[in-house]
């Protein structure tokens, strides 16, 4: 089937390559000419395990191409929308200008297809009510053109795997029964390979589909802030939050996942999605339903301040004249995404308070050096730690989890480690002569 993917960022580029991997003929459209040039040359513009391989393979097979010209999507039957929905500048609500622009640009090319309806398929994360409004504009383009809302649940670092083998697929379909049936059949054909593997597919209305996405991210953010709140209690009592998380996680109603206490959640999604959800609830007059998310957000912010305090204590009460090595710049391992990264935020704060900060990240390092010439970016952990008074592990890359405390001790001025992700074995580091300071653990 001929498919277009509009918006080729972390979500869209991976989606385009994965759709080609499923055998479809795909064109990815983006307004960023540099990104399109990089993708067209088979070079991933961001770090995502496994992505570059499927990108290059499908370009070579002639099933995948990228363009800045919307005219190149004219023959596609299915148009996925994956443009960004960041926070509006200075506010909490989602900025829909990119979704609106993408829809405006695709509308002139929407026409009924000989093989059934033409579909616009929304994947971007949007406030509830957006799909219904877009559906009206799309329906005005002509008969046989419909909108399905198909939220995306992929995690960065696992994006390829999550796209090809998701936990579930959700379709928000039009209220009109025959439009719903016909458009569902087209999207089923796109995902035929996944559906054959019995991946659950839930069909619902637009509003439910939109809410499923923000509800899932809100639940995940709440789990993280819950365990970070428990870390605050553990710190006040000398208890160990990692043991607490393990013990409650044995109850499979709770589960072990997403209970890693630390410097909290960041990235291009969880923080802005819970804020946009609160803003939308306010517009709908049900803001009270989500006041708990304010606390989730506040707990998350506090963890960053707390990490700064742990480092200040380690530095002897002041950062002035002290060198701090920061291990990690990306918001999570196996990604080079630094959007709302706790690691980078903490590094900025510490630098702003007078420390000499040297930062290193296995994937984000080169991008950081380019974007932030004011920062000292080191090649690896040993180079960053040379002469440091404090070492902070803020993104739990394997390279950092596997560090040898004896070897690293030889590089630093003072062997004091702040483990902001509880990723290290405190006993091993203490045995090697380090002062170990974790999050919510003695
Ligand atoms: N990054 C992720 O892991 C996931 C993201 N999402 C959602 O997907 C959406 C996209 O997120 P990301 O890929 O992370 O953002 P991104 O910022 O990496 O990519 C967005 C892309 O859209 C392009 N764009 C903007 N306006 C355009 C237009 N009018 N026409 C064509 N292209 C245009 C930009 O140049 C950019 O390349 C957001 O709504 C996000 O919440 C959902 C699930 C996972
Ligand atoms: O909407 C989105 O964009 C995506 O947002 C998250 O995915 P992602 O942001 O890639 O990363 P996560 O693995 O969820 O991690 C988010 C943040 O939480 C932190 N985290 C995660 C788990 C945990 O136990 N503790 C914790 O602090 C991570 O370090 C990271 O900063 C969701 O997990 C995806 O399902 C969703 O599709």
Automatic annotation (TrEMBL):
Keywords: NAD, Oxidoreductase. Substrate binds at residues 153-156, 213, 258-262, 266, 332. One of its GO terms (molecular function) is UDP-glucose 6-dehydrogenase activity. It is an enzyme of class 1 (oxidoreductase). It catalyses: UDP-alpha-D-glucose + 2 NAD(+) + H2O = UDP-alpha-D-glucuronate + 2 NADH + 3 H(+). Residues 325-426 form the UDP-glucose/GDP-mannose dehydrogenase C-terminal domain. The active site is at residue 269. Pathway: Nucleotide-sugar biosynthesis; UDP-alpha-D-glucuronate biosynthesis; UDP-alpha-D-glucuronate from UDP-alpha-D-glucose: step 1/1. NAD(+) binds at residues 30, 35, 85, 125, 156, 272, 339. SUPFAM superfamilies: 6-phosphogluconate dehydrogenase C-terminal domain-like, NAD(P)-binding Rossmann-fold domains, UDP-glucose/GDP-mannose dehydrogenase C-terminal domain. InterPro entries: 6-PGluconate_DH-like_C_sf (IPR008927), NAD(P)-bd_dom_sf (IPR036291), UDP-Glc/GDP-Man (IPR017476), UDP-Glc/GDP-Man_DH_C (IPR014027), UDP-Glc/GDP-Man_DH_C_sf (IPR036220), UDP-Glc/GDP-Man_DH_dimer (IPR014026), UDP-Glc/GDP-Man_DH_N (IPR001732), UDPglc_DH_bac (IPR028357). Its EC number is 1.1.1.22. It comes from the Bacteria. GO terms for biological process: polysaccharide biosynthetic process; UDP-glucuronate biosynthetic process. NCBIfam families: NDP-sugDHase. PANTHER family: UDP-GLUCOSE 6-DEHYDROGENASE TUAD. Catalyzes the conversion of UDP-glucose into UDP-glucuronate, one of the precursors of teichuronic acid. Belongs to the UDP-glucose/GDP-mannose dehydrogenase family. This is UDP-glucose 6-dehydrogenase. The lineage of its organism: Bacteria, Bacillati, Actinomycetota, Actinomycetes, Micrococcales.
């Amino acid at each position: 089937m001929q498919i277009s993917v509009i918006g080729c960022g972390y979500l869209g580029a991976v989606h385009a390559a994965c759709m080609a991997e499923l055998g479809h003929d795909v064109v990815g459209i983006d307004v960023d000419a540099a990104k399109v040039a990089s993708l067209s040359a088979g070079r991933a513009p961001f770090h995502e395990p496994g992505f570059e391989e499927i990108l290059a393979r499908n370009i070579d097979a002639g099933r995948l191409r990228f363009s800045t010209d919307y005219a190149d999507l004219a023959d596609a039957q299915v148009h996925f929308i994956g443009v960004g929905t960041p926070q509006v500048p200075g506010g909490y609500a989602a900025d829909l200008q990119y979704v609106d622009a993408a829809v405006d640009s695709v509308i002139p090319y929407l026409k009924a297809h000989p093989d059934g309806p033409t579909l616009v398929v929304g994947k971007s994360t949007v406030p509830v009510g957006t799909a219904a409004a877009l559906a009206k504009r799309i329906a005005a383009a002509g008969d046989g053109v419909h909108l399905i809302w198909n939220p995306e649940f992929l995690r960065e670092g696992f994006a390829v795997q999550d796209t090809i083998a998701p936990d579930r697929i959700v379709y928000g379909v039009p209220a009109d029964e025959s439009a719903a049936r016909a458009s569902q059949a087209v999207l089923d054909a796109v995902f035929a390979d996944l559906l054959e593997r019995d991946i659950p597919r839930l069909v619902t209305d637009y509003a439910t589909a939109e809410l499923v996405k923000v509800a899932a991210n809100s639940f995940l953010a709440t789990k993280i802030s819950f365990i970070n709140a428990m870390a605050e209690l553990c710190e006040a009592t000398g208890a160990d939050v990692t043991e607490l998380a393990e013990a409650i996680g044995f109850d499979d109603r709770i589960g072990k996942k997403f209970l890693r206490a630390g410097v909290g959640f960041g990235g291009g999604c969880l923080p802005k999605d819970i804020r946009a959800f609160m803003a939308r609830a306010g517009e709908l007059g049900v803001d009270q339903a989500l006041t708990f998310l304010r606390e989730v957000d506040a707990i998350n912010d506090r963890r960053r301040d707390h990490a700064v305090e742990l480092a200040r204590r380690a530095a002897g009460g002041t950062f002035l004249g002290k060198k701090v090595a920061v291990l990690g710049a990306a918001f999570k391992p196996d990604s080079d995404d630094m959007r709302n990264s706790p690691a980078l935020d903490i590094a900025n704060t510490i630098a702003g308070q007078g420390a000499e900060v040297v930062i290193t990240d296995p994937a984000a390092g080169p991008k950081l050096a380019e974007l932030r010439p004011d920062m000292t970016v080191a090649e690896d952990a040993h180079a960053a730690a040379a002469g440091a008074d404090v070492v902070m592990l803020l993104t739990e890359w394997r390279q950092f989890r596997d560090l040898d405390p004896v070897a690293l001790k030889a590089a630093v001025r003072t062997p004091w480690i702040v483990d902001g992700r509880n990723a290290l074995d405190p006993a091993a580091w203490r045995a090697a002569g380090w002062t170990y300071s974790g999050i919510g653990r003695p």
